[in-house]
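Could someone model fe (ii) ion with this protein?
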Amino acid sequence: MGTASDNLAKRQEENKPYRAEGSPAGAAQPMDRIWEAIRKHELESHIADLETHGLTIIPPEKAAPDGFIERLKAATLRFIEKQDGRAPDLEKGESHRNQILGDYHYMVLHDPVFQEMFCQPVALAVLDYLLGESSIIHAMSALCKGPHDKTIPGSDLVLPLHSDNQLLPGPFHPYAEFCNLTWNLTEYSREDGSLAYVPGSHKLCRHPLPGEGIAQAVPVEAAPGSLICWHGNTWHGAFQRKKPGLRLSIGAIYSRPYIWPRHPLREDVPQAVLDANPPRFARLCGKHVMTNWREPGPTYSADIIHAYPTQFH
Ligand SMILES: O=C(O)CCC(=O)C(=O)O
Ligand SMILES: [Fe+2]
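Reply:
Sure, complex below.
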């Protein structure tokens, strides 16, 4: 065993390729890649929307290839049926009357289409812009809501306004540390019980106080198959569903890699599943995150990220 300074020198040598090349050139690399992807998918106006309002709606024709949403919806309905032990009542929504969130979580290993969802290039371009290239999946859930009989007093909301930065104390950073990418699978309007959000609230960099923002909340109006993306700072909730039938969506919350995820994907996802997906999927599961090492020290390999010099890393 070498001396402490030998070990340090060895580590520094091994780590060289993964260091930032020095500002600003080192910082420019991921930023340039991310901007290239945004331009390739013609997402510039959506990035402006995110910056200005804290949320953007990417229409179905841009969000994913033909046929993807139908497969995602079918797998989501199968999961819900299995979980509930009965078929969802698509027409009247009585099976899910007064449901606000529901218990449909951690579906990633239940059907490969959920893994495909995480690897959609347009979603990844927005994710990279918001959280950098090292972000991880924090949690995923499907939401299935029937008509609601009552609202939060003084509003037409059923889910109170909140920020998805649930684990962060305020004040928040102006750049995102969490974000939410939600695939909307049915019509979304106020009457449908859509997502509600407060445009510009991400700029306040804090959690809302109880009741705050209700008067400024607007509905997210979106066609089925849209990808709704929001900054973790953005205040949002959900409106009462007034129509019969079901409002269905599948949402993923992502975080920067230094935040402990709610889903233990790094530990749970089998190698065969990683092998069946693009390499980026393994990173989304946290395989590159340098935490939980013991006496031998961290691994210095090309896959492990040791430093995040900018918000785009
Ligand atoms: O879509 C909704 O009803 C809101 C759910 C929500 O707050 C979330 O996905 O973070
Ligand atoms: Fe939320």
